[in-house]
Write a structure and sequence with these properties.
Layout lengths: L1 E8 L3 E9 L4 E10 L3 E3 L2 E3 L2 H10 L8 E6 L4 E4 L26 H4 L8 H7 L4 H5 L2 E4 H10 L4 E2 H4 L14 H6 L10 E2 L4 E4 L9 E3 L5 H7 L8 E6 L3 E7 L10 E4 L5 E7 L3 H10 L3 H10 L20 H9 L6 H27 L5 E5 L6 H11 L2 E4 L4 H13 L6 H11 L3 E3 L11
Parallel strand pairs: 1-6, 9-10, 13-17, 17-18
Antiparallel strand pairs: 1-2, 2-3, 4-5, 7-8, 11-12, 13-14, 14-16, 15-16, 18-19
The chain binds beta-L-fructofuranose.
The site of beta-L-fructofuranose has 13 residues, from α8.
InterPro entries: ATPase_NBD, FGGY_C, FGGY_N, Rhamnulokinase
Organism: Solirubrobacter ginsenosidimutans
GO molecular function: ATP binding; glycerol kinase activity; rhamnulokinase activity
Length: about 450
């Protein structure tokens, strides 16, 4: 039996998950879960990174493991000087410093959907900063944490693709674009694949384990752990964001609303970032309500609810989400249940539109949607997704990101061969829940 630890920082929590592998089945065991709240400083919204790092390694102290790997969401980074010293705590992508930055036209090279959160805009927002001038290297957050664990710094390629500064065709930094934008070239360092051994943990951590790069972009890890049924399957990584896409052998540039992010083994995730359950999370925060209570209220609503475009940029930074949604729906008297149901129905309709675009761009017919991540537990949303899209939904694994993280490590240490082998382990370890489209689909709202 081998044991690997996944350090996974998501928007609602940070966690350490241990994966025990017997050669066939991977059993996941949560070791520690802790809040991941950004901190507002006078100059903006920052990661509370030292706190997170302390929490994550604290629970592993004294252990001997077969591997350790770090993943987090994409786009956020730290700049480091020539001694590897961090030049400021990373900003959180929901910080508003990218507002008003002129549009960057890099899609033909990077294939990345234009979003204000992209690293490229964050870097442009600090183009004149001392940090960027002095920067010797850039480390996306998981690169930085892996460096703190092992003393080795490298730019892991799946997360590098979220910067919107990677050439989607070559898998190299888009140096031409970087220069055109007036950004320094020096910080963009050696790119390495998931599953590369960085080295042992530094002795002062009192933790014995080889540190591996994994698919350090959480969505890349989650996709790698999806037991894909066949090439007619789409994947919906459902959590704070809804990442709905298909896995392809190479990039497709025909629809700039779709992004081409890198996955394990050079695969491309052609997907759309949809605003996702962030909408509900912000409502829950404003109402100080629990999710179980809100799900029950949404289930109890009978009749149609209005729908709105969940991807309206006004929702990105959060705030009084219930009021923003009522305004988007042109209503002022919605109950909590109606607002939450309207979020779900609006997401499901958005998924239907995205599927049409994915089918057109990829030339594939989508018949099944694998819903993975925390949102796979949301029965109402899964059923609405099946009803509105008319596709079968297979829900799970819920902990797809942590699973993908430890599976990449198991492969790096020689226990597994191909990406298909990793997915076979996922299939053997977790049973999906099926949702068939209802005979009487959700009524189309006016
Ligand atoms: C999901 C995710 C998405 C990315 C967004 C911001 O956690 O990584 O893939 O677009 O967060 O980085």
């Amino acid at each position: 039996m081998t044991e690997y630890a996944a350090i996974d920082f998501g928007a609602s929590s940070g966690r350490v998950v241990c994966g025990r592998f017997d050669g066939r089945v991977m059993v996941l065991e949560p070791c520690h879960r802790f809040a991941n709240r950004p901190v507002r400083l006078p100059d903006g919204l920052r990661w509370n990174l030292l706190h997170l790092f302390t929490e994550a390694i604290g629970c592993l102290r004294g252990r001997k493991l077969d591997g350790i790997g770090v993943d987090t969401w994409g786009v956020d980074y730290a700049l480091l000087d020539e001694h590897g010293r961090v030049l400021g705590l990373p900003f959180h992508y929901r910080d508003d410093r990218t507002e008003g930055i002129a549009h960057v036209d890099g899609y033909a090279v990077t294939g990345i959907q234009d979003m204000p959160i992209n690293t490229v805009y964050q870097l442009l927002a600090e183009r004149d900063s001392v940090a960027l001038r002095e920067a010797h290297s850039i480390a996306l957050v998981p690169d930085l944490l892996a460096y703190w664990l092992s003393g080795e710094l490298a730019n892991e390629i799946t997360n590098a693709s979220t910067t919107a500064l990677l050439d989607a065709r070559t898998g190299e930094w888009a140096r031409g674009l970087i220069a055109e934008l007036g950004l320094p070239s020096r910080p963009f360092g050696a790119l390495i694949e998931p599953g590369t051994l960085l080295g042992p943990t530094l002795a002062h951590h009192e933790l014995e384990a080889p540190v591996y790069t994994v698919a350090s972009h959480d969505t890349a890890s989650a996709y790698a752990a999806t037991p894909l049924r066949d090439e007619h399957s789409a994947i919906l990584s459902s959590g704070t964001w809804s990442l709905l896409g298909v896995e392809l052998p190479g990039p497709v540039f025909t629809d700039s609303a779709l992004t081409n992010e890198r996955g394990v083994d050079g695969t491309i995730r052609l997907l759309k970032n949809v605003m996702g359950l962030w909408l509900e999370q912000e409502c829950a925060r404003v109402w100080d309500a629990g999710f179980a209570e809100l799900h029950a209220a949404a289930r109890a609503v009978t009749g149609t609810v209005p729908i709105f475009d969940p991807d309206d940029e006004q929702f990105l930074r959060g705030g009084d989400m219930p009021a923003m949604i009522e305004q988007a729906c042109g209503r002022r008297d919605m109950t909590r249940g109606e607002i939450v149901r309207s979020i779900y129905v609006s997401l499901a309709y958005k998924y239907r539109l995205v599927l049409e675009r994915l089918e057109a761009a990829s030339g594939r017919d989508v018949r099944t949607i694998h819903v993975i991540g925390g949102g796979a537990q949301n029965e109402l949303l899964c059923q609405l997704t099946a009803d509105v899209t008319g596709r079968e939904v297979l829900a799970g694994p819920v902990e797809a990101t942590a699973l993908g993280n430890v599976l990449v490590q198991a492969r790096a240490s020689g226990e597994l061969g191909s990406l298909a082998d990793m997915r076979a382990v996922s299939a053997a370890s977790f049973e999906p829940v099926h949702y068939a489209p209802s005979a009487v689909p959700e009524e189309i709202p006016s």
